[in-house]
Amino acid sequence: MTFRRMADRRPVETTVARDDGVVFELRGAGGGADLPHDLVHALVERELRVADGIWGCIADGVVWQSMRHVSGRQPPHAAERSAALKRARSARVQQAELLADVVARLARDAEVLPTEVAGSGHPRAQLTEAAAALRAAGREWAALRPGETLVVDWARPGGRRRR
Q1: pLDDT band at 163 (very low <50, low <70, confident <90, very high)
Q2: What angle do CA 111, 144, 67 make, to 5 degrees?
Q3: pTM (predicted TM-score)
């Protein structure tokens, strides 16, 4: 994934190259010096080895509305597969949203309730380590000038594609 920093208040542009050779562009929230929402997800899911969150879904064939096909041959019935995966994984995607929020708040030293930590499915120590990774990435992101990029490799935990 290549995240391109844009000027303040402009959507972040991300290039996503899947393992099957299909490339997408997506526009997401988070222009300026703050880490973009999609980048937070990528980092949190990578650090906590979340295989079926937002980026695991994309790796497996989900195409979100914000994505535009750029190149590569999509597999047969790609739209139907995407819709089925969205339905099947909706609860896990919601969990990934909550997890990203908890870790982002920890990274900002904001209050996180013990019930939120428990609901994350991860020990506080792991969440704290992921928050440290977010802070480090945040410093790197803030140092970028508009138009510069940050590349993040995301690999499914265990190195396998999930079907």
Answers
A1: very low
A2: 80
A3: 0.89
